[in-house]
Amino acid sequence: MFKNRLETSYKRHLINLAVLISGRGSNMDAILSAIKSGRIRNANPCIVISNKPGTPGLKIASEKYGIDTKVIPSDGLKGWHYDQILVTTLHEHGVTPKSGLVCLAGFMRIISPEFVRQYRMRIMNIHPALLPAFPGLNAQKQALDYGVKISGCTVHFVDEGVDSGPVILQKAVPVTEGDNEESLSARILEQEHKLYPEAVRLFCEERIKIVGRRVSII
Ligand code: GRF
Asked: N or C, fewer C-beta in 10 Å, the chain?
């Protein structure tokens, strides 16, 4: 009975999804694969956008999943000058602040406050460390240099700061004696590929509740 009611509501609230990438696209691949296999049931992947042409992620999106892709080159455009082109593209593909979700997956640009305000709590990011530790670039190297024994990955909502928005899910990954940046990054990435689809699934099932900075899974 309960299951049927949920399934009906999933059909009603299909989330239009955009994934923004800059390179490899392995997290994007993990999310799209979870949708394709039915693990995420009520997401509609609409567009994959890259700020760099010819990235491997674009090929995966179009050839493996048949999803529309678009390159919006940075071309020296900063902040809202770039993001307004992004927002127009999102709207053109049905990814609106009302019905959409934007997943940053290795998107190497800082999002402008104007974009964040329009899509508040509808932009997610994945970061390869346990935030608030080691925000910004080279998080795995930062963790190794600091000498922590545990690092990991975080999926969070994007706010106006850098890697500072409300935390949705985290997964710890132990740092081992012989670790270097490459080995630690690979073990964290393995967890990222499970964590990010899980966060998207929870969002699409409307199971994420946000009060202040605290995110509860209901
Ligand atoms: C991942 O490590 C992610 O945590 C970080 O950028 C990397 C992107 O990798 N934000 P991929 O393009 O998803 O393979």
From this structure: N
Q: How far does residue 2's CA lie from ligand 1's centre (Å)?
A: 37
- Which of 112, 61, 109 is closest to 84 using CA atoms? 112
CA distance 215 to 53: 35
**Candidate list 93, 127, 156, 193, residue with the active-site label:** 127
Structure tokens at 173: 């990954």
3-217 architecture in CATH?
A: 3-Layer(aba) Sandwich (3.40)
Spatial distance between the Cα atoms of 166 and 212, rounded to a whole number of angstroms: 8
- Are β-strands 123-127 and 150-157 bridged in parallel, bridged antiparallel, or unpaired? antiparallel
| Per-residue pLDDT tens digits for 103-161 | 999 999 999 999 999 999 999 999 999 999 999 999 999 999 999 999 999 999 999 99
Where do the domains of the chain lie? 3-217
Report the nearest-CA residue for atom 5 of ligand 1. 106
Which ligand 1 atom is at minimum distance from the Cα of 127? 4
**105 close to ligand 1 (CB < 6 Angstrom):** yes
Q: Which contacts of 134-138 are long-range, i.e. CB under 8 A and separated by 24 or more positions?
A: 135/162, 135/163, 135/164, 136/162, 136/163, 138/181
Q: State yes or no: is 127 an active-site residue.
A: yes
Kindly report the backbone phi and psi dihedral angles of residue 215, in degrees, each rounded to the nearest multiple of 5, phi listed first.
-105, 125
